[in-house]
Amino acid sequence: MKLKKLLAFGLIATMTLAFTACGSKGNDTAADEETKTEEQGNTTEEASEDTNSDSEGLSGTVVITGSTSVEKILLDMIDEFQAINPDVKINYTGTGSSAGIQDAIDGVNSLGASSRELKEEETSQGLTADAFAYDGIAVVVHPSNEIADISLEDLAKIYSGQITNWKDLGGKDSEIVVVSREGASGTRGAFEELIKLEDAGGLSEGATVVEGNGNVQTGVAGNENSIGYVSFSFIDETVKALTVGGVEANAENAKAGDYKLSRPFLFAYKAESLTPEAKAFVEFTKTDDAQAYVEAHGGIKIN
């Protein structure tokens, strides 16, 4: 009887030890799994933080040279972008479209600002054209000028020197003072191409050549016999914008294709050397917030 009791007691003890071992092993496994999961979670969080850091930590300097026509729009875009990205500094200098494009070819700037399409010889040197707005070119005269409308053909004749007096266009008997832009100007390049000035003999030697839209505007505002051309964003009460072929110079007409003196605002750059901060700025200029500045300054949004 005692032997049976001892055997039963031994069996119970053995089973107890076995269950205890299994439970301990199960707890250890669960703990290991929990630790492993936690470590994986920490690794994932760290990777996520690194990714966010890479995408948000923009810093450095972006150098933009080129068109003066884009100045008002671009400066507002730059201010907002820098407010969002305080570690990025953007330096813009208005040097004319051709100069900005050449800087992009030579690697002198980050982005070349142009107010004309790129030429074949420019794209063949590895440049990408990326439009952020469209613009019209307004033909402006002094507010006192009686002329209200002009044709592309007459513009070509005026700028080539074939028409030299306002009376030939129905105005007063006064010599026309022709104001044009410097050779590197994208506005000049687009204007001359659109009115087919080369076919008419090229720019008259008697034309007054000035740098920048602002100087054209000031020159026309200060001389009642003058005529010039400026970006839409430079139309104000100091000058009068003529209709061209009966079509008013405004964004709606230019976007619809009815106003014939229009062109793109774009960045020229070599894609392979575009820095993260320059790329981010190019992308920013196409956002709704940035495009609001295009409209605010008389330009035409890209969408």
UniProtKB/TrEMBL annotation:
Residues 55-285 form the PBP domain. GO terms for molecular function: phosphate ion binding. Residues 1-20 form the signal peptide. It comes from the Bacteria. One of its GO terms (cellular component) is plasma membrane. CDD domains: PBP2_phosphate_like_1. Residues 24-60 are annotated as: Disordered. The keyword Cell membrane applies. It is a lipid-anchor. It is found in: Cell membrane. The keyword Signal applies. SUPFAM superfamilies: Periplasmic binding protein-like II. Pfam families: PBP_like_2 (PF12849). PANTHER family: PERIPLASMIC PHOSPHATE BINDING COMPONENT OF PHOSPHATE ABC TRANSPORTER (PTHR30570), PHOSPHATE-BINDING PROTEIN PSTS (PTHR30570:SF1). NCBIfam families: ptsS_2. This is Phosphate-binding protein. It comes from Mobilisporobacter senegalensis.
